[in-house]
Amino acid sequence: MIESVEKVIIDGDENKFCFKMVKDGKKYLVPNAPGNTDYQEIMRQVEAGTLTIADAE
Amino acid sequence: MSFVKTGAFRGLSSDSDDIKIDSSGNVAIVNGNIVNKNLIINGGMNVWQRSTSVSVSTDIYSTVDRWKTRVSGLGAFTISRSTDVPSAQGFGYSLKLDCTTADASPAAGDFLQIQQIIEGQNLQHLLKGTSNAKAITMSFWVKSNKTGTYIASLYDGDNTRRISKSYTIDSASTWEKKTITFPGDTSGTLDNDNGASLWVQWWLGAGSNFTSGTLATSWESNTSANAAVGIVNLADSTSNELYITGCQLEVGENASGFEFEPYETVLRKCQRYYIRYQGDAADDRFIAMALLNDNHTARAGITFPTTMRDIPTVGENHLEILRGNSGLTDVSYEALVDPATNGCFLQVAADSGTPFTTGQVAALRLDNATDSYLEIIAEL
Prior knowledge:
The structure holds 2 protein chains of 2 kinds.
Chain A: E1 2-10, E2 13-23, E3 26-31, H1 37-48, E4 53-54
Parallel strand pairs in A: 1-4
Antiparallel strand pairs in A: 1-2, 2-3
Chain B: E1 8-9, E2 19-21, E3 27-29, E4 53-56, E5 59-60, E6 68-72, E7 76-82, E8 94-101, E9 111-119, E10 136-144, E11 148-156, E12 161-169, E13 176-182, E14 196-206, E15 220-221, E16 241-251, H1 263-271, E17 274-278, E18 285-292, E19 297-303, E20 313-317, E21 319-322, E22 328-337, E23 343-350, E24 361-366, E25 373-377
Antiparallel strand pairs in B: 1-2, 2-3, 4-7, 5-6, 6-9, 7-8, 8-16, 9-14, 10-13, 10-16, 11-12, 11-14, 12-15, 17-25, 18-19, 18-24, 19-23, 20-25, 21-22, 21-24, 22-23
C-alpha cells in the first residue's frame, strides 16, 4: 500500500523530477516514466482521488 | 517427390512419442532441450533474489523472481522455496504455498493466484489476433494435499480477453504433471512493446465474482464470473499446502520437455525486471562510486547488469558513503537523476549534518546488516 508520495525537483529544473514513495513501510524513488508500473499506480491513485502528491520540502 | 506425413516419432526403444508435430506443424521434442521456447521466465523456480520465505496476505512480488503471489482477501500464506520436487525430473526447487490463516468462506471479490505477466513484444510469434493464431501449451508439476479442480487461465490485458481451463489434482500430496493446451485466439492482437500483454494465471481459490458464471473454455471478452468456475479453495484450512515447479508455456498443441537453462541465463532474464544488491552481517557491500555533490549529498553512478524492461524504481535500506580516511556516513535516498534502462545516478543525502566536501570521490555501500539492500525494479 502506498503511504506517501513526494515530488522531488532535480537541479532546480521543474521539468526534471522523480517521486519519493513510501510503500508498505519501504522507501522508493520512482522515475517520471510512464512505462514504470509504480509511476502508473501513483497516477492511477491520484486520478482516483485516493492519493495526493506532496511538493518537495 | 514423396513425403512421410506423421504426427509423432519414437525411438527404437521408446514406448511413448519422443517428437510430436501438431496440426499446424509445430514440433515438440519431448525429451530434448530447445532453447528459448519457454515463454515463462524462471519456471524451474531457480532464482530468488528477494527472499526465500515470506508471509503474504496481499498482491505482491515477494519471493521467487518473476512470480507474483496474489492473496487478495483469501487467507494468508507463507510463500517459500522448497526442495520438495518431483523425483528424478531434474528440478532443484519448487514454490511452496502454505496456508497460515484459513478462510473457508471467500467474500465475492476474494481470490488467490500465482501469476506471471509477459511483455507483448515477446509474444508476437503467437500471431494472436490473426487467422493463423497459434495454440499455446502450458505444462507444470504440482503437488497438494488439497485435491480437486483448479483453474489455469490466460488473460490478454491489451484486449481484455480471457480463456480458462480446469485441471484436477487427483492424488493428495503426490507430484503430478499437468498439461493444458489453449487454442489460438483469432481476435485481439497483442501490443508489440515492453508493456504487460499476457497474464498467465494459476487460480488457487476465488469468490463468487469469479466463479458464478460458465468457465471461459474458449477465448472470450473477459467476464470475471467466468474466470475460475468450479475451483477448490486452497485457503480453506491451515493444513493446506501446494507446491509447483517446472512451469512452461510454449507455442503449439504439445508439451515438450522442460527447458532447463543455466542459472546465470535465468538470472539475467529475471534482472530485466528486478535487480537486488543484498547486504549481509559479515561485511559492508560495495555498490558504486559516488561524487560528493555538495556538503550533504552524493551522486552514485549505477550501471545495471542488463538492460531493464523500463526505467526502474529504486528502493533502499541502510546505505552508507565511505570517504577514504574520513570515515562512514549513513545516507538515505534523495533523488533519481538521469535514470535510464541501463543505469542511473542515485542521489543520497547524509542522515545528519553536513559531513561532505564537494567534489570528492567516495563509495556507496550497503551497511553490514542483513536488512540492507538496494533494489532496482522494472516489474510488470
